[in-house]
Amino acid sequence: MDPSFMSAPASEIRQSVPRRRFAATGRVRSGCLTCKTRKKKCDERYTPDGSCCQTCARLSLVCERVPLRKVVPKRPSDEPPSRSPSLSLSPSSSDSGGDDQANEVSSPSNTRINPNGFITLFSLENASPERILLKYYIERLASLCSILQEGSNEFRNVLLPMAIDDTSLLYALFAYASVHLHTTAPAPQISPLTKLKFQTEAARGLSEAIRLNNVSQSTIACALICSTAEVVSGDTTRWFIHLQGAGHLLNQQGGPEQLRRTSDGLFLLRNFAYHDILAALSTGGRPRISGVYWVEDGPISADCLMGVAHELLGHISEICFFIADANDSEVSTDIFPEGLLTRGETLAQKLKTQTLNLRTTLTSTELGILLHHAEAFRYAGLLHLYRFLRRFSGATYGHRIAECVEGIIAHVSQVPLSFHCEVGLVFPLFMAGIADVDEGTKAYIRTRLDNIYSWTRFEHITRIKELLEALWAAGRTDWENLLRDLGWKISMA
């Protein structure tokens, strides 16, 4: 070994060892595109005119370079309107260039909105079908679903928050609004295909929740809204299938005991019970659940569907069970009517003497109107029971039916025209109409039904009126047989 090397200072040794250079920025983003395509490092030593690097010149290659870009200042017109809420928007991506190509600033014209969720509907600048239908439901349709002139409306306060987390319920509300909007003020944006799309998405969401065993309260609400949408469209079969499905989902969710734990669950129970009892009455079946399972203990508040007639509907439910049991009995009711008459009289007495245990903050005027609504329901339930018992004692129950008709008309006449509570009088008016009434009573019933339809545009009222007109024209009162002949199932809700 060279002694001079051994005697050299350490600083000189360190300086003589070549250092390895490391790239501080990782991947090199400069140079021509030709060298980058060849995966070679560009020497970046360009010819005097700047058109070609020395590597491309030596290999006789066309030296391509990234063209220079100009930064365009953002115009005020590109800014989103201040009235729209700020949302997280994902710009549309582009794969047109290399790694060195900068991303351009997105403007509302080239921004893609993620259509997942509820609040994005309000960010649309143009009137989309979803925005039209949501606005229509909030401002118009939800109020038509309630018989309360004042107070809270659960069709807004309960269903809309649920729809934030459940898109199937949101689509069901869109379908409901599109059905009703078509009868009131058809919009060109809401085509039959659009309505079908919303109905399909709601049905798909229901099926998926059932398949994944992921049934929730919003799933039950979705089924109920699907049923109601079919009712107001004038359908005579599908609404009942959706209602039965809602009953299955309710049991799958844990039944009334589970839903009673929350205020939203209680509303769903009231909604289902109201439609289920009236459906059992019109179809001759039994309600899915017996008892007054939808109320809390103590005084009862006014409901947007039942008003103050909670306990009265409970007795009507019991009457439906009684009639269905009698019709299914193996023992001939013509031979042994005494037991049926006794039980029927007991049910009639319970319905006639039922008091209304109220807890309400409504004005005295609206409370008085709701009491007339409840009394009309009381007489309608009695009339339904007396019509069945008349099979065994026509002389006894003929005059009682006439008294019920008088009671219904008397209380209905106390409800002002076009008052919200009027929409809840369809059932009492129908029950009065199927009795043997005079022409004056028929004209009054026809007028009130026409008025209800004029401001609600609920098509099931048209079906009810068609049924009454057919009965009156034929001089018949056996409306159950006529429904079977027509193959109809109608809702009196």
From TrEMBL:
Location of the region described as Disordered in the Swiss-Prot/TrEMBL record: 1-21, 72-111
Signal peptide (from-to): none
Major subcellular site: nucleus
CC per GO annotation: nucleus
SUPFAM superfamilies: Zn2/Cys6 DNA-binding domain
Gene Ontology BP annotations: positive regulation of transcription by RNA polymerase II
Compartment(s): Nucleus
Bias type Low complexity, positions: 84-96
Keywords, sorted A to Z: DNA-binding, Nucleus, Transcription, Transcription regulation
Superkingdom of source: Eukaryota
Record keyword ATP-binding present: no
Keyword check for Nucleus: yes
GO molecular function: DNA-binding transcription factor activity, RNA polymerase II-specific; transcription cis-regulatory region binding; zinc ion binding
Span of domain Zn(2)-C6 fungal-type: 31-63
Protein name as it appears in the record: Zn(2)-C6 fungal-type domain-containing protein
